[in-house]
Automatic annotation (TrEMBL):
One of its GO terms (molecular function) is cysteine synthase activity. InterPro entries: Cys/Met-Metab_PyrdxlP-dep_enz, OAc-hSer/O-AcSer_sulfhydrylase, PyrdxlP-dep_Trfase, PyrdxlP-dep_Trfase_major, PyrdxlP-dep_Trfase_small. The modification N6-(pyridoxal phosphate)lysine is found at K210. Keywords: Lyase, Pyridoxal phosphate, Transferase. This is Methionine gamma-lyase. The keyword Cell division does not apply. It comes from the Bacteria. The lineage of its organism: Bacteria, Pseudomonadati, Pseudomonadota, Alphaproteobacteria, Rhodobacterales. The gene is mdeA_1. GO terms for biological process: cysteine biosynthetic process from serine; L-homocysteine biosynthetic process; transsulfuration. Its cofactor is pyridoxal 5'-phosphate. Belongs to the trans-sulfuration enzymes family. One of its GO terms (cellular component) is cytoplasm. Transmembrane segments: none annotated.
Length: 430
């Protein structure tokens, strides 16, 4: 697939980055279950270690199975390169690592995955980094939050779990003006429903654990670079623009141009942080990506049917799904996410905390798990689980109050899902 970008999404999700195995002709991408690769000779080895030649050295850095997934995701997102990681959270640290240093901050949306709020508000402080949380609908607040130490703005395209959709273009205009990158977590939307790079994002991160793998088998993450950011335009990004002591004074941006960020992610990020994706995980995710568009179509269709039904039920207070005309984000969703707004939403149950707990315990098809983006329908009571570490104010801001449950609608028969919710609500609210 040499001129891959000219093919359509459904073709690229199956073929991009892959070709029959040169050694055996194997049609499916082999799982290269190896730690190391034999050098042709000592000179070849030295060239690889000096980054003068690209090739395989050791699987903490690169692996042929993982490389196929990287190329496939870079292609689907419209980026120049990608680095896969051991989880979505690893990908977030890997995305920030080349940009940040002690004293630097990231301006982050208040509407983020609960684990990301914790990672950004607590754990990154150990590196001397910090996060400033702002409502990304308030563009003036975003502008005001950016200071001379801000190195990125971070948001989710479709924010999990509150039914919120981001106007990426509006944020990209602000980050372009400030000379800093915009990082978009595209996990809930997937490249099928949203292309953040086409809307101006610099970097895209994924938890491949979710829809990309799609069957709840492996954790993984990915950072995709648009290749469009000028890392040398100012002195804010010395890891990419200045001399790198760990590579004999090499300057990544000067040497690798648009691939600077990706090369840094492998040569410094994976080499020294070691958050590597293993080839088995890459294999499962490659299998999932092959059917991404088909699954996302069904996830969207089923979610709309279930959300419609719930909204009309008098045991339910409200449903937050951007695909419903009642959503405050309906217009934006139609404009920015025309193929649909995914399979995730929340709804509030009139009986409050107690009814929510009974509901999750009474469902038969839905599984009560801390995951999303599976072929199976999943449910979770965020306030008692994923968002438990957050303050009540943070829970409300994230759309995860005590009377709210989050569903990840699977690709089963929508009528069966509705019947299951009906019988469980009868027990929960009876
Ligand atoms: C799950 C998730 C993450 C974290 O990914 P892991 O693979 O669990 O580390 C980050 N962002 C979003 C939107 C997620 O849904």
């Amino acid at each position: 697939m040499t001129d891959a970008p000219s093919y359509g999404f459904d073709t690229l999700q199956i073929h991009a980055g892959a070709k029959p195995d040169p050694a055996t002709g194997a049609r499916q991408t082999p799982i290269y279950q190896t730690t190391a690769y034999v050098f042709r000779d000592a000179e070849h080895a030295a060239a690889l270690f000096n980054l003068q030649e690209v090739g395989f050295i050791y699987s903490r850095l690169t692996n042929p199975t993982v490389a196929v997934l990287q190329e496939r995701l870079a292609t689907l997102e419209g980026g120049v390169g990608a680095v896969c990681c051991s989880s979505g959270h690893a990908a977030q640290i890997m995305a920030l690592f080349p940009l940040m240093g002690p004293g630097c901050n990231v301006v982050a949306s208040t509407r983020l995955y609960g684990g990301t709020v914790t990672q950004f508000s607590q754990t990154i402080k150990r590196f001397g980094w910090s996060a400033k949380f702002v409502d990304t609908d308030d563009l003036d607040a975003v502008k005001a939050a950016i200071d001379e130490n801000t190195r990125a703005v971070f948001c989710e395209s479709i924010a999990n779990p509150g039914g919120y959709v981001t106007d990426i273009r509006a944020l990209a205009d602000i980050t372009d003006g400030a000379g800093i990158p915009l990082i978009v977590d595209n996990t809930s939307a997937t490249p099928y429903l949203c292309n953040p790079i086409a809307q101006g994002a610099t970097l895209v991160v994924h938890s491949t654990t979710k829809y990309l793998t799609g069957n709840g088998t492996v954790t993984g993450g990915c950072v995709i670079d648009s290749g469009k950011f000028d890392w040398s335009a100012n002195d804010k990004f010395p890891s990419l623009s200045a001399q790198e002591p760990a590579y004999h004074g090499l300057k990544f941006h000067e040497t690798f141009g648009p691939l600077a960020y990706t090369f840094h992610g492998i040569a410094i990020g994976l080499r020294d942080l070691g958050m590597t994706m293993n080839p088995q995980a890459a294999h499962y995710t490659l299998m999932g990506v092959e059917t991404l568009s088909l699954r996302m179509q069904r996830h969207c269709e089923n979610a709309r049917k279930v959300a419609d039904w719930l909204e009309k039920d008098d045991r339910i207070d409200y449903v937050t799904y951007a695909g419903l005309p009642s959503s405050p984000y309906y217009e934006r969703a139609q404009a920015c996410y025309p193929k649909g707004t995914g399979g995730l939403f929340t709804f509030a149950v009139k009986g409050g905390y107690e009814a929510c707990v009974k509901l999750v315990d009474s469902l038969e098809i839905f599984s009560h798990v801390a995951n999303l983006g599976d072929t199976r329908s999943l449910i979770i009571h965020s306030a008692s689980t994923t968002h438990r570490q957050l303050t009540p104010e943070q829970q409300e801001a994230a759309g995860a109050g005590p009377n709210v449950v989050r569903v990840s609608i699977g690709i089963e028969d929508a009528d069966d899902l509705i019947r299951d919710l009906d019988q469980a609500l009868a027990k929960a609210c009876g």
